User: Fold this.
Amino acid sequence: MSPAGEAVVGLLVALGAVVVLPLGLRLLGRQVVPAPRSAAWPLAGAAAVVSLLLPHSRLAVVLTLPFVLASAVLLGAGVRLAVGTLRDVAPPARPGRAHAVVPRAG
Assistant:
């Protein structure tokens, strides 16, 4: 990839992590994402972008940790939403009643 192409990709990644992701989280709201309007979301994205600009080092790894933590929070929110959705969709189980198909004699 050319240097100009790398610069464009880097700019798009930065824009996505610092601007687009936090705005998307705001659209989801508090019922889905904890503290969607918090400044922590764009700051975690900015730290990840800076880590991409640095050479491979311990500092670069440390700067990715806020984004990793934010991703884990989003994973937990997604699992919670999926479980709630499955609970709403699944029919309630009736203990002690089997739904077996028995052929009629005749």
Observations:
- Helices lie at 3-28, 40-53, 58-89.
- The two ends are 75 Å apart (CA to CA).
